[in-house]
Amino acid sequence: MSDSSPTPEVEGAGRERVPEISVVMPAYHEAEAIAANLGQLTSALAKTGISFEVLVVADGDAETFAAARAVHLPEVVTLGYSRNRGKGFALRYGISQARGRLVTFIDSDMEVSAGEIGRMAGEQPILSSAPRAGAPGVGFEAVVWPWGVSGQGAFAAAPA
């Protein structure tokens, strides 16, 4: 990874198809575990039968970038940049590169089980059917925060 290049490095196959779900995996100092963790995650996602991509974002860590790049799975895309910018930046960058209809994330240390991401991916038809506040034909116009302040629960009804 070059310090002088403003463009982060990217490696991954199959970027021409649009997956149903993108999983962003920010990674820092995970070179030893990243291959096994990617194997667990892609295995759990493959069991759902839903198309997916996993975007590993090596947050200024050349060793993790190299270890993730060495995992030759068509669903895995390795992204990286030369300077550590923190998890928030890694997530935002990964989300900006994601192509899936749904985007989620999992930490590279796999504190959350890969099976949970797979289970969530299996609920994709339900998740993708959720209406967006303010969308045409949706029966509410705003999300009320904090929940229930208006006495109408999480959503405010559209005026009749």
Spans of at least 5 consecutive residues with low confidence:
1-14, 143-160
Major beta-sheet overview: 5 strands, mixed
Any idea what the CATH superfamily of the largest domain is called? Spore Coat Polysaccharide Biosynthesis Protein SpsA, Chain A
Work out the helicity level. Answer: 25-40%
For the biggest β-sheet, the strand order reads 1-4-3-2-5
The rounded Rg comes to 18 Å
Total helical elements:
5
Average pLDDT rating:
76
CATH architecture of the largest domain: Alpha-Beta Complex
How would you spell out the order of helices and strands? EEHEHEHEHHEE
- Highest-level CATH class of the largest domain: Alpha Beta
- Number of structural domains: 2
In what range is the share of β-strand residues? Answer: 15-25%
> What is the rounded distance between the termini?
57 Å
Structural class: alpha/beta
Task: Give a structural overview.
The chain has 160 residues and is α/β, with parallel strands linked by helices. The chain folds into 2 domains: 9-128, Spore Coat Polysaccharide Biosynthesis Protein SpsA, Chain A (Alpha-Beta Complex); 132-160, no CATH class. Helices cover 29% and strands 22% of the residues. It has 5 helices and 7 strands, in the order ββαβαβαβααββ. The strands form 2 sheets. Strands 1-4-3-2-5 form a 5-stranded mixed beta sheet, with helices on both faces. The longest helix is centred in the N-terminal third of the chain and has 13 residues, at 34-46. The model is unreliable at 1-14 and 143-160 (pLDDT under 50).
